[in-house]
Every structure is written in structure tokens, then in C-alpha cells.
Amino acid sequence: MLTICRNERSALVKNIAIRTATVAFGLSCIGATALSGAANMVEMQVVSVITPAACTPMLSGGGVADYGTIPARSLKPGAVTPLPAKSLSFSINCDAAAKVSVRAIDNRTSSVIVGIVAAGSGDGTLNDSFNFGLGTAAGKSIGGYAIVFQPTSYTGDYQQAQLLYSTDSGTTWQPSTNGYVAKNRSFGWGAAGSSYVSSLRTISGTITVLPYINKPENLSLSQEILLDGSATLELSYL
């Protein structure tokens, strides 16, 4: 916006000059010279507010992976019981192209059972940074689950996108081959084959949860047990 205050200032200068002339000729000459110089200047301002792009993350199904009723007899004695994978659609929509990242925050971290994801999946590389808690029942931890951004499912602005991750708060990025979400990782999206986060308006793909239920002898199966996993996907602007 350009603001030119010409009309108000020129009118004010004119009034002062006329009033000075009625006092003394000498003063009116001095005043006229000074005020004439002031009248020849006008201030121009260039002002605006540039607002950052606003982005909204969304999950299908209200963000709930509902496993319904699980019979206690389906749990394996002496073993961790894996539940079937469930997938949700995940999208980020921005009102202008923006570079964004997402990290997962475990809201049930106090219920984490050490090593349950590694044991249940059979993958020893999935340490407890990949292990999200499923809550507690009667003071006993129910289990854990892994979260996966399915790498090949993602598009950015309707083109195939590269899923990337960072372990240093976005300073450096590298391609994610399996999409497993660790609590110390941020995820972003770039052009296919890229190692850099791109500015995008629309990102969409699939997120999957893989739950593992504690050994039945470690649970209070005389009452209903409600799976209560909760994680927050936090979006940040880069």
C-alpha cells in the first residue's frame, strides 16, 4: 500500500503562511522560504504484511484406527500378539506452496513396554524410538505400536513425491526407504529422487499403524481392556 500525505500537509502549510504574513513582512519572508521547502517534499511509504502459508494436516476416519472387539482368546500365551495393519489417508493442504515437516509425539509414552515393537515385528532395528504406547489398564501397559508413512504412496502437487526424514531438526535430509516413524525424526517431502524438501501446496499419501499386544499373562484379562494409543502429528514450517 502506498500512502501519500500530500493534501493534508499542503493545506496545513498554506494556513501557517497566511497567518504569519499578518504579523510582520520580515517574518513572513523567512517563514515563506522555510515552508515553501517543506511543501516541496512528500513522504511515500511502502507497507504491507506478508503472512506465511497456512497448512492443514488431515487424517481419514477422524484419525482413529479402530480395531473393534478383540477376544482375549486370540492373544498368544507367552508371546506378543501382533494385530493387523490399519491404514489411514494422510494429507496436508496449504493455501500457498510451503516447505513443511511432520513429527510424531507419543501421548502415551509412560505406557511404553521396552522392546515390544522389536519383539512383535521380529525386526531388532526397531528400537524404542519407534515404539509408541497403547496406554494402560489396571495399571498394566497394554502394548505398543509402530507408525509408518508408506513411502511410495505420497504425491506432492499430484506428482510422485520423495519421502524424506531428518534427525537434526531439518538441517539435513535423506530419503526414507521404509517410512517407519521414530520419535527423533521429522519427515518432509521433495521431488522424486530428491534429497531436499520442496515447497508444495498439496501432499497426500498413506499412514499405517502396526500394533502389538502384550503377553496375556501380563494383562488383567478379567476386565475389558481398551486400547488407548494416542500420538500427535505436529506440522512445522521450514
Describe the structure.
The chain has 238 residues and is of the alpha+beta class. 16% of the residues lie in helices and 36% in strands. It contains 3 helices and 16 strands. The chain has helices spanning 6-21, 25-39, 116-121; strands at residues 2-4, 44-46, 55-59, 81-82, 86-98, 100-106, 132-133, 136-137, 140-141, 143-149, 155-156, 159-166, 174-175, 186-191, 200-213, 231-237. Strands 3, 4, 5, 7, 10, 11, 12, 13, 14 and 15 form a 10-stranded antiparallel beta sheet that branches. The protein has a two-stranded antiparallel ribbon with strand order 1-2. Strand 11 (155-156) and strand 12 form a beta hairpin. Helix 1 runs antiparallel to helix 2 (25-39). The protein is elongated and about 90 Å long. The two termini are 28 Å apart. 28% of the residues are buried. Mean pLDDT is 85; it is low at 1-35.
